[in-house]
Amino acid sequence: MRKMNWPRKNTHGDFYIAQVIVKEGELVTIDWTQAGRNPACFEVLISYTYAVPECKDGAIDTAKFMPYLDEYQKYAPFKLTEYDLKMMPYLLYHHCALWSFTPPYDNLPDEYKKIAALTDKLANRLYDNVDSLSRELYKIYKKNILPEVDVMKPNINNYDDVLNFLDTKVATVEWDEFYGQRKFQAPFITQNTLPDENLVAFLNMGIPIKSALELGCGEGRNAIYMAKHGIDVTAFDISPVAVANAKHIAKDLKIDFKCHDIIKDKINGRYDFIYDSGLLHHLPPHRRITYIELLRTALKPGGYFGLTCFAWGENCAEEVNDWEFYEQKFSAGVAFTRERLVELFSPFFETIEIRKYKNQAPDTIQGLQFMWVCLFKDKRG
Length: 381
Hints:
Elements: E1 20-23, E2 26-30, H1 40-51, H2 62-75, H3 82-98, H4 110-144, H5 159-167, H6 175-181, H7 187-190, H8 197-203, E3 211-215, H9 221-228, E4 232-237, H10 240-249, E5 256-259, E6 271-277, H11 285-298, E7 299-310, H12 322-325, H13 338-345, E8 349-356, E9 371-378
Parallel strand pairs: 3-4, 3-6, 4-5, 6-7
Antiparallel strand pairs: 1-2, 7-9, 8-9
């Protein structure tokens, strides 16, 4: 690392500034204030690109970055997760794309011209390589940082070992690429600020809902709608790109967006309402057990659970039974019959409604007529 001689007026409050503070060639402290309100994982990567000479042409050497990251973590009051590592390149690309300049930078002060040139080079490099860079960082994380307890054990000794083993036998969607590249124009991509019509209908029923948990929130459209109606919302998604987009879209609202694997992480607190628009149908059958356990843990007795999922017979997803699911790897999701949904949830929930999604409702997302919309109530109430 080397000392950067930035203009004095830029010593704080500008996210061009490296968060690592160096004195006589040695790391002495790190500024956590993040005046630009950026995640720490973004700050550490951008500080590296601006402080290391090898990055002057816009190239990021992941092997050389990891020692820098290790040093950063020695002083950090937190530990970066696998999601942070995967998110870093996307956040940096987003920043560089927003703050790119046009050569020859004649309208900029001399002290900013080097920064402008580097920002443009980074943007051009990341345009072609952001996905591969994310994958490289994640591979390095798994190899060097991932705690041993998270590594798949060779033996099956308990219930969790069985579930973890089955996880390795199924395909998954690369959600970061899905939300980052936006190649598939799904309704929740093209209409990412509009809520589901059934969620709107539920809230219009007048049932008092003070707190809500959303599972698989994507870019936050339903969480935003609930927050605007005075509900205290916690929203989870496994994709760091989706969560970053959600936080940007909802920057003026108080929503607790979390980037975690909701199925494997513990949930603190209980909620009046849990909503899922598109998570269940992407889970393998064995994780539906975990899913229902999650609902029963996180939902208050007598609380409500809303669900939107693929409907059998609509040619929108794989139509297979649970055993057939494991015979080949599916990643596009599975469809449910009405009877199967009742079978899954009736032991613990009263079925209030199962119907098809209605298009044409004003100010709601359109094009989901192939989905079931369901409302259940906890039987403990």
